[in-house]
Design brief:
By secondary structure, the chain is mostly helical. The chain has 19 helices and no strands.
Amino acid sequence: MTASSPFQITNIRMFIAFRVFFNARFYYPVFTILFLDYGLSIEQFSILNTVWAITIVCAEVPSGALADLLGRKRLLVLTSILMIIELSVIAFVPVVNMTLVFWAFLVNRVLSGLAEAMASGADEAIAYDSLVKQGDPGHWPRVLSVQMRVKALAGVLSMTLGALVYDPVIVNRVLSWFGFDIVLSQVVTMRFPIYLTLVLGFLALLSTMRLQEENGDLSGRDREVSLANLWQAGQLTLRAGRWILQTPFALSIILFGMMYDHVLRLIITLTSQYFRLISLPEASFGAIMAVLSLLGLVIPKLAEFMVGRFSPAQNASWLGLLGLVTLLGLTGFIPYAGLIPMGLVTVGLMLTAFFTSHYLNKVTSSDQRATVLSFKGLAFNLAYGIIGILFALLIVHLRGDVGLSNPNWTAEMIENEAFRRSFYWMPVYFIVLTAAIGLYSRRILSKQ
């Protein structure tokens, strides 16, 4: 029986629930300082997140192939379990030995990377296949739109609450309002956002357990992980890779999505330092990020309109123009008004995610959907890792130039100026890569 609404389908509802519970992390607004308050250094923070990115790149495509071969539900249940374990490790690690703390966070980053890789593609594939079999695949843009808006609302709540419970001053004030004569320190309250996210991990597990596999013989219930199955997963991976290379439209979508995603994601990771340099108080960071998340209530509807109104080539062009305007706006570091281009970064990332999902699912067959989507994730994360290394090298170079030109400046002044100058290179980098990809893809996308 065909469902009149996509939201009557259990897998669609559980897909949205999983996306919300897996991604609404209460510690995001305090992500960097959380590591530092545990006693880790900036260098260790950088090493740990490099490990996270490498883990995703290594696990991305094999996990997608295993999802297609052994069952998407099985992999998503495992993803939720990994989320619970990775959060538990840092939620309960005693801060008595810095070596122990570092290893706990290293385990956290590896498990987090594995969970991200396993979630990438499998949840989307099982939801889309359910829509094909039980409803109308033409409703997929609507599903994406609702999913993004619900996730945005959850992000507003989690980021606002996460920043509040992290602050011992606010927590103690609330406790006193309720008559509790307790004074909690930062050592205690810094774990509260992790505890709250751990609760979401259990909710994510419940939502994945309610998923129903659509691909009968690929349900994973009667298939065991063996060398033979791992070999088949490798063959499936190679076949999906060849299909992408032999399908110019799919390759073009991945290349354009990769181009926009990795540049804008780099900006997002630099948000707190950018906010500081446009004269925003640090106490406002969580609230600002929550407000920016509210764009998720509007942008999905815009994206839904755009995929219906414009061709893939036109949407790629709109994204290119938006990206260039955004990067040029960021170079100004205009006090307070610099929030506008940062808001455009959020818009660009949402449109990129929507367009790549819509167009790739439309042209990919069910038997290799999760693998192809994992190739997309691999390309995005590989590009993100490369630009991160390039940015670090650029900062080192610019820091040296600024220091030589201004020998009387403090280390902080030199660091801030190097950071500002690094943003001047981003529009140039973006134009060169966009032009190169555009030369290959313009005619291909125009034919669709």
